[in-house]
Please model this.
Amino acid sequence: MQAKETKCPWCDEVIQPKEVTTEGKHGKIQELRCPKCDGIIKARLKDLPPI
Ligand SMILES: [Zn+2]
Model:
């Protein structure tokens, strides 16, 4: 799936966000980052941890 072009709130450029997955304490976090300034556009939990 291709990420939509969006305007970066940090550097004010229209960019194609890159997807980065990081391991957090509460599971995997999927982040959308700006390729120009590396600012986080959006972040969400990828997998919910088992109860
Ligand atoms: Zn940016």
